[in-house]
Amino acid sequence: MGDITDAATAGNDPAPALGAIFMQIAVNPDGTITRPEVPLIPPSSTSSTAISRDVPLDASLGTYLRLYLPNPAPPPLAAKLPVVLFFHGGGFVLFSPATAFYHAHCEAMATAVPCLVASLDYRLAPERRLPAAYDDAASAIAWLLGSADPWVAPHGDLSRCYVMGSSSGGNIAFFAGLRLCANSPSSSSTAGAARMPSEAASEEDVMLPLEANDKLWSLALPEGADRDHEFCNPARAMVPAALAGLPRCLVTGNRGDPLIDRQREFVRWLVEQGGVEVVARMEHEGAHASQLFVPERAHELFTAMREFMAAADGA
């Protein structure tokens, strides 16, 4: 498990280690799962890049937000920062804001964009299948928009509040955006019963093998649902009218991602059927979620975010 962080630090390709983590999910005879252990990082008030702290969201559900501010934080009279509500990936089944590579990613994002990041610890499947994560996302947006938090209130510009996710977190951002018509930068994870070419060719993919992708969806979807359920394949299952009011979106993808064909279909559906304005950045090199580990891919993502936000500010 430490190989992920070690490989990323050394500049090597960490994808085999991450792919191995997905394959280590064990489904028990009673339907429960045993999750592989991954390195966790506590929040930090002393990080040289971005400081962080955890705040409870719903104590009865055990959910929380990890907030990140650039270090040093902007002075009180400085212009406020855009706010990014971030949803981690992991197929709705694994990880949290404390997972080492997601914690590091949010630190880097807060500094590079710059922005105030709120990373949501949402309920995981299969203990809480979809739409539980979407419900938690809606609760997080409501918390942010009404927040008197000592970081959010003085430093966050809630008129520039974005929802964003990595992989399955991008799926959560999309459905949260539908519920509340928030701004939506996203790298969305979708699927369907019929294989796309990039999915069919991914049996040996080191980052997201086909077997792992299938397992994650089987654990996350509502009981009895197939891969053409709207949570998994909105382009097939949802009517275009459901997209009414969805504002301008950023969708990013990498050419080496098994989900790239599905993402391209998703973008076409948003634009052609829903009339949504989409900024698509789909031609970068890299594997699934490589922005978490490869500095060049992270730089491309953060640049796209800055450009997307600047265009919104100038609108």
Quick take:
Pfam families: Abhydrolase_3. By secondary structure, this protein is an alpha/beta fold. It has helices at residues 2-10, 15-23, 100-112, 132-145, 152-155, 168-180, 197-200, 210-220, 234-237, 260-273, 295-314; strands spanning 26-27, 33-34, 50-58, 63-70, 81-87, 116-121, 156-167, 184-188, 249-254, 278-284.
Contiguous runs where pLDDT drops below 50 for at least 5 residues: 1-16
Globular, elongated, flat, extended or rod-shaped: what is the shape? globular
Fraction in helix: 25-40%
Find the count of extended strands (DSSP E, 2+ residues). Answer: 10
Query: How much strand content do the residues show?
Result: 15-25%
The whole-number mean of residue pLDDT values reads: 89
Cα-atom radius of gyration: 18 Å
Structural class: alpha/beta
| Sheet with the most strands, sense and barrel status | 8 strands, mixed
Spatial gap, N to C terminus: 45 Å
Going across the biggest sheet, name each strand in turn: 3-4-6-5-7-8-9-10
The ordered H/E elements are HHEEEEEHEHHEHEHHHEHEH
By DSSP (H or I, 4+ residues per run), the number of helices equals 11
Question: Could you describe the 3D structure shown?
Answer:
This protein has 315 residues and is of the alpha/beta class. Helices cover 37% and strands 20% of the residues. It is built from eleven helices and ten strands. The protein has helices at 2-10, 15-23, 100-112, 132-145, 152-155, 168-180, 197-200, 210-220, 234-237, 260-273, 295-314, and strands spanning 26-27, 33-34, 50-58, 63-70, 81-87, 116-121, 156-167, 184-188, 249-254, 278-284. It has an eight-stranded mixed beta sheet, with helices on both faces. Strand 9 (249-254), helix 10 (260-273) and strand 10 form a beta-alpha-beta unit. The longest helix has 20 residues, at 295-314. The protein is globular. Mean pLDDT is 89; it is low at 1-16.
